[in-house]
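4.2 Preliminary Data

To establish feasibility before requesting continued support, the project team ran the inverse folding procedure on a target of 169 residues. The structure was first converted into the token representation described in Section 3, and no sequence information of any kind was made available to the design step. The complete token record follows.
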């Protein structure tokens, strides 16, 4: 694996922790730097559309789940509609690894769907525990289904078409 892909995945993890542990203000600062670096040094032409698409998807999906009572937030964090900003920022952050650090995954539909259906709920559960967010009993099942379908769509859309960028060194 080349240094760009490692930096891409490490940046995602850094952003995740900044959002979950640092809240909206810290998350916004870190994700803004990560997204600027991503767009400057790693993104393909037009990739900003993917990042924007994931941002919209996050607002619709997690925003809808907030409105349905799936999340219970205790803090008065900065908000984007129904979502705390830090939760919403995780979506474009994930969009940044789709065509890079996770590009290999979309050629393996069953593995991608399994990773989505298990990894996403685990991420939500862990993030909620660390951030002091309560989750409705049904939320993790809903997230598993959402991410299974999202990963299936990504396999269909990107399966044989996206390859990780090669390192220039």
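Position-by-position output of the design step:
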């Amino acid at each position: 694996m080349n240094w760009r892909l490692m930096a891409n995945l490490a940046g995602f993890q850094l952003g995740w922790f900044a959002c979950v542990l640092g809240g909206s203000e810290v998350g916004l600062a870190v994700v803004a730097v990560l997204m600027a670096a991503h767009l400057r040094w790693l993104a393909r032409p037009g990739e900003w559309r993917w990042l924007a698409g994931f941002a919209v998807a996050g607002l619709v999906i997690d925003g809808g789940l907030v409105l349905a009572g799936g999340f219970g937030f205790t803090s008065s964090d900065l908000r984007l509609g129904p979502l705390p900003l830090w939760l919403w920022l995780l979506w474009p952050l994930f969009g940044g690894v789709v065509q890079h650090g996770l590009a290999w995954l979309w050629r393996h539909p069953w593995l991608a769907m399994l990773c989505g259906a298990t990894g996403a709920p685990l991420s939500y559960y862990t993030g909620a525990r660390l951030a002091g967010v309560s989750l409705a009993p049904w939320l993790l099942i809903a997230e598993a289904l959402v991410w299974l379908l999202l990963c299936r769509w990504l396999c269909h859309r990107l399966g044989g078409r996206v390859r990780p960028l090669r390192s220039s060194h």
